[in-house]
Amino acid sequence: MSIDDFLYHLELSHFYQAIDDQTKAKRECLDGIKCLNSFSKGVTSKVSPRPPPGTTKTPTHTTTQIPPERLKLLSQYALNHYNNLSKPLSITEKLDWMCSRFSKAEIFPPVIEFSPDWTSHHTNFMDLDLPTPYQDQNKSIGKLPYEAEFRPVDIDDWSNQYEDLTSLYQDMLSNCSFVSSILAIVDSSSQFSLINMISPHTSNSKYKVILHFNGLPRIVTIDNRLPFLIGSNEDRNVFIKSFTDPQLYWPALIEKAYLKVMGDGYVFNGSNMANDTYMLTGWIPEIIKLQNGKLPNEFRWLWKYKQDGEIILGIGTGKISKKLSTHLKLISEHDYVIDRYNMAGNNLTLKNPWISNSLIDRFISINDLTCFRYLYVNWKPSNLFKYSYRQSFIYRVKDDCIFTHPQFTLKNNTIKEQEVWLLLERHLESSEQQPQGWINVGIFETSSKVLTPTQFRNINLSEETNNRLHLIKVKTQPRGSYTAVVSSNKNCNFTLTMFNNISSDFTFSKSKYLYNYTLPAIEGEWAEGSNGGNWSMSTYINNPQYDLIVKEPSKLIAVLYGEQEMQVNFHLFHSEKSRIGKKIHSFDKSKLLNNENYNSRFQLNNYNLMPGCYKLVVSGYDRSKGKFVLLLNSSSQLTIEKIPQNIGLFIRKKEFNWENTNRYKLYFELTTYRTRLSFHINHFNNSDKDYEILTNYRPAIRASIFDANTSMPIQINEKFDDSLYGVFIEAEIERVGTYILLIERFEIGLGRCVIEVGSNYRIELK
């Protein structure tokens, strides 16, 4: 058995731990420990370790000499890992490993650090003498845009000469962003070593490459097969080559690992230089949009940083017509390396990563940047910041309520202004699952969860971006608190990394509501019959209503969200205990606690409530149909209950026309003792409308109840009422029998009258 077998089991153990399969995690860890024991005794085995589901693994037969002190490190790591398998992992720790699997057959594990100078990427963990050549089973890397065949390459040339690396170029593969990144890294003064990304530095059928994606450095395993064009293009290349050293193949292996992660093999679907440089180096990416064909004002000091090896620079064109492209010798939507900068003339010399037949157009002198859209900057983190902290999380699109978005709060506890950088990374997945959408981060001046986009000042007004990496620079004020809100229109996983110079203890945490008590968000709907509209409509009282019970003084934040383009609002009214379970009958301003204007999409109000009963009514302005979400956050516990939509368990309706009369008798029969009744009487001026508005004419109406047999009054109402919302009569009748509801209007006239009768038992209208 080899040390590679131990690592194989250890990585699987981490993965199974992340998906909460402790049985398999323990089994894999123990298998790894057995490998260590066999290895330390000098025992070799021809038994293959158990592969993960859907994968195959070639058995190994040779051992590698490893110092005893390093074996001890591995043993200690494995034992510690085994002892910690029963301990819960954070979401970030889980996603570190869960997001390493792109398919059943492929895992891109995080780099494991056994000591500061010894990681799982070391040559010690490589099979250098496989009995049969390793062959990558990943199908995506086999995708080719041209007629080609994969051939194994024996790589004996591990030259790291500057001249050979600066001569690298792209040919028939349209991955200008990647090749430009390679060239810019080589050309920088950063001393970043590309060759150390790959292991081992010898001829082998299997290689491991470190790339930065999905939150941290990961290992991508590839074989030594490269695609060679055949037929009419056999003298061209579909992988990166050096025109000064044709046998320099190791950069093509890094390229292959990169293409494997991107998921479409050699059928490249595009990227940009900032993203690719981040993937190669882990340096913080920034994309600056160029305005008016000019470099940004800060470019001079950016160039100085570049010369000092602190940043890597690149530039990209926008879409250019073929005619203009030929005239300017520029390629449409293409990334270039910035080779030289003449401050006096504000002139750039660009290096083209693409070479077809000659080197004539390798360097281009540019004064006018009209055709260029982006400046790419990658910052060396260690030169700017002492500390970093990251959290990974899952984003699922439920609705567009900002309080459901991932939110993180940070606080500058120092007495000085501190600049903090936040890098949001959308995780890569398999090419079939790759989300294509926008992302954004809002930075709000608050120490609590943000409930609406306008609740607090947003100091980051950047536009949404379809790039998977998004950098936000925040100047935090002394003792200032800020909440970062992540938004996207696609389901995906994210990592948010914060860079700072405050302290190693400076972190961000999941945002909390301002108050301690939050009721579960209420999801409702304005549907047919409950889309009552605003309070100037007679149907306002048909809107969804809730009883709110407050038992002790409380501060309350109420938030309502409707669907896109809806104008929404809610009103809170004082009420009585006797009215619990019953809807309001009018818009009584004397009982109203707030009367805000309707607002597009969402509404928020703050209240200081005393103990008592309240009615909460949610409404849209124009009777639109749609769903809504209601959230209540309070300083003490509250109770909220939805009020039934109907005025009774059983509903009957009657309609008649006045026809220049002013009285109407509605006969109804009760067959059950102690029947409770609610009558809702509405006037309509037109036969084709089911609502009236505040300015419409309406007659004053009153109604009374009589025993039909004895003519004795059951309930007399002498007052006429012209309420927009209709007249309500409530009664409890002890005896069975036939009764009359006498409806009167103040003067004779026309119009339509609709009577809705709600009851706790069945009744009959005659």
TrEMBL record:
Residues 166-354 form the Calpain catalytic domain. Residues 55-64 have a biased composition (Low complexity). Transmembrane segments: none annotated. The active site is at residues 176, 334, 352. It comes from the Eukaryota. One of its GO terms (molecular function) is calcium-dependent cysteine-type endopeptidase activity. The keyword Signal does not apply. Keywords: Hydrolase, Protease, Thiol protease. Residues 42-64 are annotated as: Disordered. PROSITE patterns: CALPAIN_CAT (PS50203). Pfam families: Peptidase_C2 (PF00648). InterPro entries: PalB/RIM13 (IPR051297), Peptidase_C2_calpain_cat (IPR001300). One of its GO terms (biological process) is proteolysis. This is RIM13. It comes from [Candida] subhashii.
